[in-house]
Target: Cell division protein FtsQ
Amino acid sequence: MTRRATIDEADPYAEDESAADGDDRIHRAGARARMPFDGRWRRILLWGAPIVVVVIVLLVIAYFTPALSVRSVQVEGVSAVPEQDVRAVLQIPDGRSMLRIDTDAIARRVASLPKVRSARVQRVFPSTVRVTVDERTAVVFFDSPQGPHLLDGDSVEFAIEPPPPGVAKLVTGHPGSADPVTRAAVAVLDAAPPALRAQVGEVVARSVSDIELKLRDDRTVIWGGADDSERKAAVVLPVLTRPGTVFDVSSPDLVTVR
Model:
């Protein structure tokens, strides 16, 4: 009896000590795991904070002072458009920081010039703004009391002036950018092979489906409409090697020559 009581009294104490030792080991292991992690973050904050401050200060200096101001402007891609016209619409104030210029707004102003199809504006650090211009190119013209009107490949009417050499004349009832027949005629000319376009003196458009290309040597190509132009372009040059004055490719499966 005495021996059993001794064992019963000892067992609870043994269990308590074991549990206490286990808790201590867990706390010590957790502390050791946190120490390197916390130390790394302290080092990052210690070295990173001054770097962030320096970067912010440099950005403020560059943004609000003449340190990175625009000192030169390069204009590229102009021939028909006078360079001074491009520079006149840039509106870049003297001493303006490179970081404060609105390149999209500048590009829109340049593209608003009648002879400009599109424009791209880039910052070239430390102090240059580059403006690249894509000019409109006349593909046809039509006569009016005001003079010859030039249209580009998008059917945009962009100038009233003598056409460049080699530009075909458009003959239609109501020529203009908003006219469907005009747009169809420009689409036909654009679809024609370059070797054929170089020979076209007039584009006669009676409707969107009745378009003829009159060549400078008095031959005529009856094209029809702008539909199926890829197949028409594929057969027209071989057909033009045949004797004749009128070449009808309006139906590319049934070409006729007379």
User: Anything to note?
Assistant: Confidence is low (pLDDT under 50) at residues 1-20. The longest strand covers residues 116-124. The longest helix spans residues 2-64. The radius of gyration is 39 Å.
